[in-house]
Amino acid sequence: MRPYLLQGHERPITTVQFNHDGDLLFTASKDLVPSVWRVENGERLGTYNGHKGTVWDLDCDRFTKRLLTASADTSCRLWDVRTGECIFVFNHRGPVRGVAWAEGSQMFVTISDPFVDHPAKICVFDAPEDQDPSTYSETPRLEIELPKINGKVVKPTHVHWTALNEDLLVAFDNGQIRLYDPETGDLKEEITAHEKKINRLRFNREKTLFITSSADFTSKLYDPVDLTHLKTYRTDRPVNDAVISEQKDHILLGGGQEAMSVTTTSGKVGKFETRFFNLVYEDEFGIVKGHFGPINALDINPNGRSYASGAEDGYVRLHFFDKDYLEKKDPVPEEDEADEDFDEEEEEEEEKTAE
């Protein structure tokens, strides 16, 4: 597996994301400057300058025309991907923690932290592509205030739209996952998925599955329709991000020891590897090393041929899978092999009976 080491950021990486076509990679970090890279050769094509605080999240639209960034400077900015121009600034009351385009890229959702007397909020904004950006409104079409639970402030950590923009899927730092109606703001369903903070949610491309990443050392696979728990992937470290492979039944997990303890620990002990799990059987079958700090962000190319990891060490590693990995079939457990043999024998007997 050959990696490109993308050296452009000066602070820890917060998120990485491939565009829909898989030819560009967008990255953000605590150095305030989101960047875009060419996947083919690892060349940095440009930066998006304007934020005055950590950029926590970003999202590119379906056709790689417009980019949204969420920042601790209490703003969400809309950018022209090609020119790097800031099209519009959506100001918030508190640090903006996450952002996501709706399908169709005509509106988007943000989550923001509580600040002073202002509670944490989920906001939906209109941003039609065919409308003059100067006429956009900073007032959200929908605003959901998140009250305290038992006197404790609960912060949203990540947000996504479900298929066909039917619901807003929101993760929280108390381990909860909630579904909200994007039209009325009503809470439709909630579950406690983890014992500790959920760091991130990731969908597969068809949005038929999503996976969580938690500080409780586990990652879990869910059905987004009714929040049914399907699988659990266990590690011996906090999980900061996890992604579902588009080409294989594989899960990639990234995390590591807490960042505050990194300076006293070697890379080997800190466990800063990307870990590979079988999606169906939940077993770990491989690791990829390289980082010298906890992995904060992962994403896998839509074509399934590469993946990117960003870490506390400030580097983004762009890995290209070997031909052996891409062509190799996953081994079938002995029990399943026995079941297949039994099924084949039954089919043969049925054919003889029919004759």
TrEMBL record:
Localisation: Cytoplasm
PROSITE patterns named in the record: WD_REPEATS_1 (PS00678), WD_REPEATS_2 (PS50082), WD_REPEATS_REGION (PS50294)
Main location (coarse class): cytoplasm
Gene3D superfamilies: YVTN repeat-like/Quinoprotein amine dehydrogenase
Chain intervals for the UniProt region annotation (Disordered): 327-355
Stretches forming WD repeats: 6-47, 48-89, 191-223, 288-318
Nucleotide-binding keyword on record: no
Keyword Repeat carried by entry: yes
Alphabetical list of SUPFAM superfamilies matching this protein: WD40 repeat-like
CDD domains: WD40
Family named by the database record: Belongs to the eIF-3 subunit I family. Belongs to the WD repeat STRAP family.
UniProt-recorded name of the protein: Eukaryotic translation initiation factor 3 subunit I
